[in-house]
Write a structure and sequence with these properties.
The protein is 79% helix and 0% strand. By secondary structure, the protein is mostly helical. The chain has one domain. Helix 1 packs across helix 9 (203-255), helix 2 packs antiparallel against helix 3 (42-67) and helix 6 (133-152) packs antiparallel against helix 7 (157-169). It is globular and about 50 Å long. The chain crosses the membrane at residues 70-88, 100-118, 139-166, 200-219, 231-249. It is found in: Cell membrane. It is a multi-pass membrane protein.
Length: 256
């Protein structure tokens, strides 16, 4: 266990930093968990990952909330529906293989990437307003859909949330990142509602990795607030490309 922790602690720190800055830390953290914890089942690996991620997200939310005003009236209901969607997504894993949805996700991700790439000013200015009833309904629907995605497929939820907060609510990248942390924390917590009673969380691993994720979250949120929208946009595009490549390869591999 000590050997495994030595390998995973720095990776958890890096994943926590990326999650706090832009989302997508799972692209690094989850493959590392599979590579090191070879005797663990997928559900046990998800338990370790989600538990440590919730710890990191909670601290990054505190970091952002201390520096900027967050639209709690919008993001708390969105987080609640995301919680419900994620729980439904986890339960659906036993009924339908998740790779059936990957081609759809790949198309959506490619469109999202192209839209951001060819609109350099996208997300550079915050032109948001006080949320209307229509905004609240839109947020609830988006939370439910992305929560389901997080529970059912997983990687890249934070990046999707970031894009949608900019696109639909006109936040800049920095404020959208902060809002996405709240919703993403809700989706991760929902999976734990299913995994903890099932005994799928190894706390001797999850708690130290969560502490590393907390340290990473502090560093990542600090860098995001210091680097600003331009820096976050570049990191977002980089992670979106990596996620697109990962999902495309997993889809092709199933067909081979």
């Amino acid at each position: 266990m000590t050997h495994e922790l030595l390998l995973l602690l720095p990776i958890s720190f890096i994943a926590g930093a990326i999650n706090a800055a832009v989302g997508g830390g799972g692209l690094i953290g989850v493959p590392a968990l599979y590579g090191v914890l070879t005797s663990y089942t997928p559900a046990q690996i998800m338990g370790v990952d989600k538990f440590s991620s919730v710890m990191g997200h909670a601290v990054s939310i505190r970091q952002y909330a201390a520096k900027m005003d967050l639209p709690w009236r919008l993001i708390l209901p969105t987080a609640l529906t995301a919680f419900a969607g994620a729980y439904l997504g986890v339960r659906m894993l036993d009924l339908m293989p998740s790779h059936w949805m990957r081609p759809i996700v790949i198309v959506v991700l490619a469109v999202m990437l192209a839209y951001t790439w060819f609109k350099p000013q996208f997300g550079h200015q915050d032109t948001s307003r006080a949320p209307t009833r229509q905004d609240l309904a839109k947020g609830a629907a988006l939370g439910l859909a992305l929560g389901f995605y997080d529970g059912f497929i997983g990687p890249g939820t934070g990046s999707f949330l970031l894009f949608l907060f900019v696109r639909f609510f006109h936040f800049d990248f920095l404020r959208a990142t902060a809002c996405a942390k709240v919703v993403n924390c809700g989706t991760n917590a929902a999976t734990l509602v299913f995994l903890i009673p099932a005994g799928m969380v190894n706390y001797s691993l999850a708690v130290p990795l969560g502490a590393a994720a907390i340290a990473g979250s502090i560093a990542g949120s600090h860098l995001a607030m210091k680097g600003g929208n331009h820096w976050i946009r570049r990191l977002f595009l980089t992670l979106a490309i990596l996620l697109l490549a990962k999902l495309s390869w997993e889809t092709v591999r199933v067909w081979l």
